[in-house]
Design goal:
The structure holds two protein chains of two kinds. Chain A has an eleven-stranded antiparallel beta sheet with strand order 7-6-5-4-3-2-1-11-10-9-8. By secondary structure, chain A is an alpha+beta fold. In chain A, strand 9 and strand 10 form a beta hairpin. The two termini of chain A are 45 Å apart. In chain A, helix 1 packs across helix 10 and helix 8 packs across helix 9. Chain A is built from eleven helices and eleven strands. By secondary structure, chain B is α+β, with helices and mostly antiparallel strands. In chain B, the strands form two sheets. Chain B has a seven-stranded antiparallel beta sheet with strand order 4-3-2-1-7-6-5. Chain B starts with a strand and ends in a 9-residue tail after the last helix. Classes of the chains: A alpha+beta, B alpha+beta. Chains A and B meet through helix 1, helix 2, strand 3, helix 9 and helix 10 of A and helix 2, helix 3, helix 8 and helix 9 of B.
Chain lengths: 344, 344
Amino acid sequence: MEQDLSPPTKTLPFQFTGNAVEYFKIWIVNICLSIITLGIYSAWAKVRTKRYFYSNTLLDNTSFEYTGNPVAIVKGRLIAVAFLGASSLAQRLYPEIAFVFTVILLIAFPWLLVRTMRFNARNSSYRNLRFNFTGTAIGAAKVYIGIALLVGLTVGLLFPFFMQRTKKFIAENSAYGTTTFDFAALVKSFYAIYLKVFAAIALLGIVGSVIFFQLSHSAMKTGAAIGLLVWIPVVLVFVVLISPYLRTSLQNLVWNNISIAGNRMQSSLTFGRVAWISISNIFAVILSVGLLAPWAKIRWTRYRIQNLSLISNVALDNFVAAELQQVSAMGEEIVDMFDFDIAL
Amino acid sequence: MTALDAYFYDGKTSNRHPAYLHLQSSGELVVNWCDTEIRHSLESVKFSSRLGNTRRLVYFLDGSQCEIADNDALDAFLAQHQPQASALAHKLESKVIYAGAALIITAVAVWATIAYGVPALARSVAFALPANTERALGDRVMKTLDGFLFFPSKLPELRQKELKAKFAQMVVNTKPGAGYVLELRESKKIGANALALPSGIVVMTDEMVQLAKHDEELVAVLAHELGHLEYRHGLRHALQSSGVALVIAAVVGDIASTSAIAAALPTVLLEAKYSRAFEIEADKYALQYLKTNNIPLKRFADILSRMQDKHSDNDSTGFLSSHPATKERIQAFLNDRSTGSNAN
C-alpha cells in the first residue's frame, strides 16, 4: 500500500492582537512613572513593553512570552553607566590613557553582542520552552569586526556580504529549545537588493548635483536656498522609495529563508504597504508631537507580524528544552547605549 | 466551582495540552489535562501580572505552566482567594483617568525640561568648558560665511584700524585669553548687520558702519555682540538644540527612524524661543556696558530703529526675525531710568 510519507503541510499564520488604545495607556504610564522615579522605573517599563508585544504575538493560538527581569536590566544599566562615566572622566582628566577604554570596549564588543543576544533569546519563550543563543564571542568577532574591516577596505563593496553573514550568524546560532534554526539566504540575493539600492542612490546623487549646479549658475541666488530646493526632494525620494524598498526586501529575504526542523517561515510584506505605513507613521508622529508614536508602533508591528507565517510539516509538539543558565543583562544594556541594531 | 479553560505546558517539551483549572475549597489548585490531575497548593503557584488583555500564565513549582486567555475570569477567580497585591501597574494602565493624569504630568515635565532644564544645564556646561571648545566650531562657520556671504571690507584702512582699536579697548576688561577680535566685512546680502561667532570673532558689515551716525552707536552694537560672546550663546545654543533632541528621542523612543525625524521638528520650533532669550540677555549686557561707560542708552535705540527701517523694506524674514520685537527692545533702552543722568 503506497502512502504519502511526508506529512501534509499546514500554514500557521502569526497573529498580532495588540491594540493602540491599550498600548497608549501602557506607554504613557510607563513614561510618567519613569520620569517620577528619575529613570529607575524605565527598566520595568522596558520589560512591560516587551511583554506586551511578545504576549500579543500568537502562533497557532499560543502567545509568546518575555521573561526578562527588570532587576537584571537595572544592574546591566548601572554597569554600563559606570563604564561610560569612567571613560568620559578619564578623557577629561587623563586624556593620555583614555584610549584604554576604547580598546577595552572594542575587545569586549563581540562578547557584549553575544551576551545581548543570549539574554534576549533566553528570556523569550513559546509554549513554556525557551529560545537560546549559542553563538560565541569569537564567532561574533569574525563577523562584526573581521568582515566589517573588509567592508571598510573595499569601500563598501562587501557590505551586502557583511549583511548576509550577520543575519546568518544570528539565525544559525539561535535555537528553540535544543533545536537550532537554519538560514538559507544566499549572498547573491543580498547583492541583488543592495545593487538596486546603490544604483538608485547614485542616480539620485547625480541628478541632484546636476540640478543643483544648473540652478546655482542660472539664478544668482544664495546657495543655501537652492540647496534646500534640491536636496529636500532628494531626501524625500529616499524616504518614500528607497528606505521602504530596503525594509521590505530585506525583511522578506531574511524571514523567508529561516527554518527550523523542516518548518519554514514565510514573510509577505509588500513595498506599497510598507511605504504607506512608514510615511504616514512619520507624519502622524510629527503632527501629534509624539502622541501617536504608540499607535505607529502597533500599526507597524501588526502589519509585520500578520504577514508572517510558519509553513509547518511536523507538529509543533516535539521540541525539547535545553538546560539553561540565567544571563545577566549587562551586554544588553551596554549595547543598547550604543544603539547598535542587532535585530534580524 | 467554576473551572478555567487553559493550555498546559510541561516545560520540558513544546507539547500543548488543553486543560482546565479549578480551585477547591481546601485552597488547592487542581489542574486537569488528558487523564492527569495534579494538585498544587495555592501558595506555591505564581500568576503573571495582568498587562492589557494579554494571555496570563500560571507558573507551577516544577517548571510547568498554564496559559489562560480569559483575563476577567482569572481575575475574578483570584479575587475570591487572594487579595490582589501586585496589580498596581495594571490599574494605572487600564483606567483612562490615570492615563490622562500620566499624560498631563509627562507633558508638564517635558515642557519644564525643555523650557528651563535644558537651558540651565547648557548654561552650566558651557561655562564649565574651556574657552577654546568653541573655537573650531566658530572658525568653520567663519570660513563658510566668507565663501558666500562676506567679502573683504571696502572701508578705508584707517577707519578699519580705528574701529578695531575701539573694540580692543572694549574687551580689555573681559577674561584674559578669550581672544575676542573684530572683523569687518562687506555684505550686500545681509546688509547692515553684526554677528558674534562662537570662536570670539565679532563680524560687523560695512553697511552697518555706514548706517551709524555716531561711533557710540557702533559701540552699543558691539557691546550687544560682546554680550553674546561673554554669555557663550553660540555653544549654549548648540548644546540646547541637541539637548532637546535627546529629551524628545528619550520620550518618543524606540521606533528608531520615525522618531529621529519627528524629534528634529520641535527643535526647529524651539530655535526661535531660545534665540529670543539670548537676544534679551545680550541686550542687558549692552545696557550695562553703556551705563558703566557713560554712553547714552538712546544710542542703541537709535541704531536699532534705523536698522529696522532699513530691513523692513527688503527682507522681513532675515536676521531680525529671531530678535524680539524690535520696538520692545528699543523701548527697553529708552525707558531705563535707573541711572537717569546717562539717558540723555
